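Q: My labmate handed me this sequence with no annotations at all. I'd like to see what the chain might look like in three dimensions before we decide whether it's worth expressing. Could you predict it?
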Amino acid sequence: MRNVVIVAGKEIQEGLRNRWVLATTLLLAALALTLTFLGSAPIGQVGAGALDVVVVSLSSLTIFLVPLIALLLSHDAIVGEVERGTMLLLLSYPIGRWQVILGKFVGHVTILSFATLLGYGVAALGLVATGAVIDLASWAAFISMVLSSILLGAVFIALGYLISVLARERSTAGGIAIGVWLFCVLIYDMALLGLLVTDQGNLIVGKLLDGLLLANPTDAYRLLNLGSETISTLSGMGGVSENTGLGPAVLAGALCAWALVPLAISAVVFSRREL
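A: Here is what I predict for the chain of 275 residues:
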């Protein structure tokens, strides 16, 4: 465990010195503040709480931005160090390859958690500063959104490691990472929507629909945050949430599985890879 902490600390220190990480944090904060103040305009028309509107806006932002940030952080975590020759130096110390993977994962998740908490926390504080009345249910939805956003980031960090241990060049890993982002965030949902429209509820119902939603981590995240009773009407996810049997525990568990399985596969593949 000590080796894992050392590797994680190294990644965090490098992240704190990296201006790109600072720029990412500022970008998240700026977009979150913009969505917070501009997105509260429809409150009087839909009767939603101010923070509920923020949850919907930030959840939509998270689906596009957090996976991209996570993949950019992690796609060259292994192959990049192999190309630079620093991986051989690191492995010359008494440290296991699985400890390298786990330490990097803890470090990158910590960096992403810091950026998410700071960026979204600033948005919540800004809303409180306006004097908006916020009930406990809205705060619970906001906290759930922040924690699940970090979990979604962890999923794509793990997928980035899997890409990194399989690719032989950084450029290849970068191209695959962008392809994975496009597929999960855009292409999969467009294809699923087309299937649902074509099917008209004849075949794709029940367990099959649940399976298709769980097959994409961004859909599990979307349903977890936008499918609740208080948010679904505002987010437009009411129809989907009514036709699935997926509760918050199942959706959160699916996101955990999406993070742990690729991470475990990455550790196994990296342990057998010749450097």
